[in-house]
Amino acid sequence: MFSKISRILRATGRELTILWFACRNPATPRLVKAVAVLMGLYVFSPIDLVPDALPVLGWIDDVTVLAFGVPALLSLLPAQVLNEARMASERWLSRLAFWRVRS
User: What is the average per-residue pLDDT within 89-93?
Assistant: First the structure.
């Protein structure tokens, strides 16, 4: 069970770093950058559809926004920007000790 959770977190972290590096690229469309900023603001905002004070239910809307939003934004990126962001993400993640450890 923990190995499955670890794989999911690893994939999510990889996609988030790819989106981060893609948003820093000047060739990324402004719409993708704007939606990424709005998505980040929603996730960290205290105003949610379901309040975060509810232990598990409060995080479900944030996780859902990330689970559907990040892959959707990555699919809107031009191929060259996506490849550059993937390479930059892999270089950055390979420097992190906890990321190199495979379970």
Answer: 90
pLDDT tens, position by position, 2-21: 566 666 667 778 899 999 99
Matching residue, tokens 């949610």? 48
Question: Quick one: CA dihedral 66, 72, 78, 84, positive or negative?
Answer: positive
Burial class (CB in 10 A: 0-12, 13-18, 19+), 45: exposed
pLDDT, tens digit, for every residue of 21-75?
A: 999 999 999 999 999 999 989 888 877 777 767 777 777 888 888 889 999 999 9
Contacts 24+ apart (CB under 8 A), 23-32: 25/81, 25/84, 25/85, 27/78, 27/80, 27/81, 28/77, 28/78, 28/81, 29/76, 29/77, 29/78, 31/76, 32/73, 32/76, 32/77
